[in-house]
Give the backbone structure.
Amino acid sequence: MALMKFDKFYPDYRDASTNDGFDVDSLKHFSVYAADDDKVGSVNDILVDIQDGRIRYFVVDTGFWFFGKKVLLPVGRARINDRDERIYVDGMTKDQVESLPNFDELDKVDYDYEEQVRGVYRLAGISPGRVTDQKRSKAFGTKTSQNRDNYR
């Protein structure tokens, strides 16, 4: 599956008017929290599946927590809290975040890489989260079907 950064896939997204006031850029600075309210990083970027235009991953910059490592958080595993500008990954510990493979180049995200990411989330026993805002759920198209090519 081919992925692309959100702003490259939708270059005019800032100019598009939305009736619901949804602003994708605001997500790029949300803090990301694991279990026990442990902050593990912040959203650095957003990746889109080029086949269907749906958001697949948040790129999480772990900052000084793990020596500047960036990791992928599947959007279907995220629980978004708009009011507090936070994204939660319930059931995930800091140690499990640290064990996620480093994300450094978009062109290296292939099936094997995604399987490494999936493996960590499977070990954590994390079930797909739910988006708190119905409008966001509709915008992201976060279905919880799971198969080899789709894991939202």
